[in-house]
Amino acid sequence: MSEASADEVQTIVAARALAHTKTVFIGVGRPSTAAILARMVHNPSLVLVYESGAIGAKPFHIPLSIGDGELAATADAVVSVPEMFNDWIGPGRIEVAFLSAAQIDRFANLNSTVIGDYDHPVTRLPGAGGAPEIAANCERVIVVIPHSRRTFVERLDFVTTVGYADGPGARQRLGMRGRGPTAVITDLGVLEPDPSSAQLVLTQLHEGVTVENARDATGWDLAVAEQLSVTEPPSDTELDALRELLAR
Amino acid sequence: MAEIVSLPEAVAELVRDGDSVALEGFTHLIPFAAGHEVLRQGRRELELIRMTPDVLYDQMIGMGAARRLVFSYGGNPGVGSLHRFRDAIEHGWPAPIEIEEHSHAGMANRYLAGAADLPFAVLRGYAGTDLAAHTNVRFIECPYTGERLAAVAALAPDVAIVHAQEADHAGNVQLWGIPGVQKEAVLAATRSLVTVEQIVERLEPRPGAVVIPGWVLDAVALTPRGSQPSYSLGITERDNDFYRRWDAISRDRDAFLAWMAEHVLGEVLVR
What's the CATH number where A156 sits? Predict the structure, then answer.
């Protein structure tokens, strides 16, 4: 078997993060692939929740959209969009939110709205979708995002979704019930918020990646944990399962 | 009371230039055929309302039918950008478009308030985001607990158009699978049209189905495959290949116009 690519490692590490999770809220793309992989390899009873209203979906294929037919057809329950946000997400019934974005800052705030000025955008992105309330109310958030200077920026062009806003205590002041982002999983490593500053700290590197690589791909002066761990390489089981899933 | 009419008749009767129009369907049951009929009839200056503009509003915006867009997620799900949506916002092509954007939770609650004929709905949302400064949302104090909550204004479209699997001869409508916000959109709107895959003698009860009584609707139009390339669970499948292909078709203005002329407007291309 060929060695795992950086993208595969990222997906596999994201799947591991759900090994002991009961419920996860996911969008499309790599977070979705990782959550399905987690069900296959680590946690068969993991409940997948999609904002389209599918609760407990068991997709065999990776869905292209959050509303693919297979999600509704395999779900334990299918609810309306107002019910999903008001009765399931709002009260914090979902444990983990798996989110991505176009930009992230040192407080794990996210931008998925616009690059450039809001009224005269360089690039108009899709916009908020469910992210602001999902990130505010799920018990905790895991961000799965590519690591580069385009995404890891000193200052967001637009705050679509609040991580830790401007520092410790901000979420509480804003009335948010969830704890906020507990991990940012990239193709280079893992960052976690420092409890005293609420700023992201590099805590783990994937095999073969250096601190310099991570610093070069980060648009701010990246803090590095004293005890920096190295990602356990993907097992054959994990890599086989991921490749088989992607080939379905 | 719902009249069962043809799709062209229904659109001609219910949709007028300048209307606020909500064509809803959350990934599932998107009323593509009805949106295309609106374009064929040349409706202009519309305020288009939809949580997820999707390919349908990309087409309507690209054809210049909209003056304003109210939405919460403007992407091609799983594929990437909606290029006509982006071109309109970034470059004003084919015409500048005014936008009002919300979160999904905000939009869903706006429809709920509209359906209930209340002026606004409350939710825990928007706090700390830049959205709050760029959209229509206010914050109020809960009269019981003092908690600060977001208040979003009711949506009351002139017209709501949705698609469903079936209706009976009295115009009672049943849909199942992902129910989205279709019922709320219909109840919030002044006028409403439902296109359906089939007309049946009797609506058979189905788990999780949403039934909309015919007497709250204006028109039902038999429109088989009317949600393609979206889908009607149990009857048609989502054409994911088309959603992928749309990326290339919609990237280029001329390719887009040619595609619309051939596939939607029904014009024969003369070169």
Answer: 3.40.1080.10
Q: Are residues B201 and B90 in the same domain?
A: yes
Each residue of A190-213: pLDDT tens digit? Answer: 999 999 999 999 999 999 999 999
CA dist B223 and B55 (Å) reads 19
Shared domain check, B84 and B37: yes
| Chain A, window 43-62: residues with a beta carbon less than 8 angstroms from a chain B beta carbon | 51-54
Instruction: Tell me which chain B residue has its CA closest to the CA of residue A74.
Output: B177
Asked if A65 is an interface residue toward chain B (Cβ–Cβ < 8 A), one would say yes
A240 belongs to a structural domain: yes
Residue ranges making up the domain that contains B237? 3-105+155-263
Q: Residues B28, B132: one domain?
A: no
Residue B181 touches partner A, C-beta closer than 8 Å = yes
A81 and B181 within 8 Å at the Cβ level: the answer is yes
Distance from CA of B271 to the nearest CA of A (A): 34
If you search the block for the tokens 């450039």, which residue do you land on? Answer: A116
Q: In what order do the strands lie in the sheet with A54-57?
A: A77-78, A54-57, A47-50, A23-26, A96-99, A140-144, A181-185, A189-193, A200-205, A223-230
Contact, B33 vs B230, CB < 8 A?
A: no
* B123/A69 touch (CB, cutoff 8 Å), yes or no: no
Flag whether the ipTM exceeds 0.85.
Answer: yes
In chain A, how many domains are there?
A: 1
Question: Residue A51 catalytic?
Answer: yes
Same-domain status, B148 and B95: no
| Domains held by chain B: number | 2
| Chain B residues 182-241 within an 8 A CB cutoff of chain A | 183-184, 208, 210, 231, 233, 237-238, 240
The predicted-structure confidence for A23-38, as pLDDT tens digits, reads as follows 999 977 788 999 999 9
Could you tell me which residues come within 8 angstroms of residue B187 by beta carbon, excluding any fewer than 6 positions away?
A: B114, B115, B216
Give CA separation, B150 vs B49, B96, B153, in Å. 20, 30, 10
